[in-house]
## 1
Amino acid sequence: MNPIDVIPLPAFDDNYIWLLRIEGTPDCVVVDPGDEDPVLAYLEAQDLQLTAMLITHKHGDHTGGVKALKQHWPRAVVYGPAHEPVSALDRKLEDGAEVSLLQGKMNLRVLNVPGHTEGHIAYHSDGLLFCGDTLFAGGCGRVFSGTFEQLSDSLRRIAELPADTLIYCAHEYTLANLGFARWVEPENAALLQRIREDQEKRARGLPTVPSTLALELATNPFLRTDVPDVVRAAEKWAGRSLSGHREVFKALRQWKDRDYD
Ligand code: ZN
Ligand code: FE
């Protein structure tokens, strides 16, 4: 049993701010606090104190609450990416850096996962991945200030983690993503089953996140760029033959950007 509780704090329309705590202690950590209000409300209701903030990338829906939270909790340490502009960072993290939190009970390792943005990072510990807007349940982030090649390589890197890793992404985009996944692989039985299960969760008001890496590998087309059916669908859309993860990835991402979203 992981002693760490990971709690979703919904923010804006579809963001999740992840709050990490250990039952019975007052310390907690938040990941990507785009808005201070849901965090402050939870901390007050539960009588907790904020000791750290983890930032994955520079976008405002992931950083907008940092300043106000720091005013309330001046001793909270703000961690974030070394290679993109995020204001108010106390520690700039390079690939492979280790972050020790919650009195040493949670140790995270930093993975550089550029592509959505140029310096996006993820935080990995035994069984958990906080990946911001890189990998989503059923999909992946758009390419904004990084490149398609970077995002393709970053997803390959995540695909190498243990299959039981829980994927804590930063948005509830799952059902929309799975609709596109179904365009790509209309006959993927694991995908069709996932759509039913996640529709049921949303109908009951539950998050579909976290998922597991194993489920993503079975159903998320952006992690399946070497599966023959996925390659064929991407080639059909592109109107030419494609080879390698990067080419297939780029065609899928452009297909979704142009025709689906
Ligand atoms: Zn973003
Ligand atoms: Fe975002």
## 2
Amino acid sequence: MNINLVQLQRHGDERGGLIALEENKNVPFNVKRVYYLFDTKSGVRRGLHAHRSLRQLVIAVRGSCHFVLDNGQQRAELILNDPAQGLLVEPMMWREMYDFSEDCVLMVLADQLYDPADYIRDYDGFLQLSRARAPEASLAPEAGE
Ligand code: T46
């Protein structure tokens, strides 16, 4: 499964670091909303949903967490721990985050305002919708078959 990581340029100097985020430049969409997750308690799993149409760029600006992505056919996992790296999360991607470090601040840029109706919080429902949207992908033979 393709994991889309955006490498962000560090502009820091001897005084410290600085990274700039600009819509439709290093952020590949119009930014309508920014939010951040912090003070996540030990042992907590967050996310556990997909979005119907939301695009997001997720950056661990401090600390680290594990990030699971699932497109309905494949699951991939990575550790976010670099403020110079953004994870692009496309629509119809199930996501789960866990193992947050105590100091973790996960900043998320989104291309839409908050809309609870955009969330799919039931995994079986997500799988059904994902197969209905891309039936050919779920039936496609593996390369070489
Ligand atoms: C996502 C992952 C990475 C708002 O009122 N406005 C907002 O913009 C957001 C994102 C949330 N909320 C409220 C809704 C809940 O009462 O904040 C509370 C916590 O939200 P949620 O349980 O959805 O948080 P996470 O950490 O499970 O998921 C969040 C985002 O919701 C989600 O879009 O991709 O972070």
